[in-house]
Amino acid sequence: MSYALIVSEVRRGVFEERNLDSIGLGALLGKEMVLLAPDGAYEINEKLVDAVVKVKSAEDVYLNPMNMGRILEQVFGARGKPDYILFTQSSSGTEAAAYAAGLYGFPVITDVSAYDKEAGVFLKSYYSDKVFGQFKASGGPAVLTVRSGSFREFAGEKAAAAKAETMEGVPAVDSRTFVDYVEEEKSDIDITKAEFLLSIGRGIGNQDEVASYEELAGVLRAVLSGSRPVIDKLWLPKARQVGTSGKTVKPKVYLAMGISGAFQHIAGMKDSDCIIAVNKDAEAPIFQYAHYGIIGDIHKVRDKLKEIAKG
Ligand SMILES: Cc1cc2nc3c(=O)[nH]c(=O)nc-3n(C[C@H](O)[C@H](O)[C@H](O)COP(=O)(O)OP(=O)(O)OC[C@H]3O[C@@H](n4cnc5c(N)ncnc54)[C@H](O)[C@@H]3O)c2cc1C
Questions:
Q1: How far apart are the CA of 282 and the centre of ligand 1, in A?
Q2: Cβ contact 288:279 at 8 Å
Q3: 127 lines ligand 1 (CB under 6 A)
Q4: pLDDT tens string 70-125
Q5: Domains assigned to the chain
Q6: What is the pTM of this model?
Q7: How far is residue 226's CA from residue 265's CA, in Å, rounded to a whole number?
């Protein structure tokens, strides 16, 4: 049978919104859509797919890639192999996809963000979307991980609700056991909500300088954030990191001091309304993105700004 298997992600009892992107891509692929989900009481819009198969396994068992390998075997036994197996582009989605592809020797394309139906080509990002790779899959069900936010507009309701089925669970493997979730350290400040961010980079020199930039942020009524080295050195808490492995921010003003402008940083702040950069190196890449720039020593600029702001 020709179908697309959507391996949905249910975490802490919530049907993750990013599943809608897998369903949207499934709709573009034009196949019958079979949605796989763990047992549990949560809401699924059953009009979005053709069949929902609930596996009688707890969420943490289902999310384990080794168990997923055996769940897939059961699905193949009952329905035959699909044409596509779609996972979410998340930490558990990507590991389960990689494991399943390795187990069965299926082709895998991760972080799919667009699909050209006519050419049968999937697009995958490199270098924070600076370059995209075009991929075709051949020789087996293609395992895809789907980027969140890329396809949800294609998920449309069908006339009838999906056929609901249940499938026996698999015994949990004990080579990797889920223990518990650890909450992210609570932060009093959410940098994604700030209107004015003063962001400091390695250029500040050392930890002793942080307090003076915190003071500057105070007088400017800005919130202090930083580049990754500043967080890695523990000068600021992780919740203050801007960039691909930190937060994406879009303040009205982003004042970058002593930040070079590596693409991992730029990806997290390039959509700010007004970017001001201060750097002693006129060739620093941050100036390519800045609306205003000051080529000079950040400490001198800091002191001058404090002087002006204090009147
Ligand atoms: C997988 C991965 C994920 C990453 N994620 C992130 C991320 O989320 N966020 C992030 O920021 N980075 C991230 N990085 C790191 C990134 O590649 C850069 O190394 C980092 O952004 C550089 O930080 P920086 O600009 O503070 O330091 P540097 O690149 O060292 O730049 C310091 C700048 O300060 C200037 N400077 C020095 N002294 C002065 C002075 N007295 N006056 C004026 N200017 C001065 C220098 O000219 C220089 O341009 C990631 C890297 C990897 C591999």
A1: 15
A2: no
A3: no
A4: 999 999 999 999 999 999 999 999 999 999 999 999 999 999 999 999 999 999 98
A5: 3-167 (3.40.50.620), 191-310 (3.40.50.1220)
A6: 0.69
A7: 9
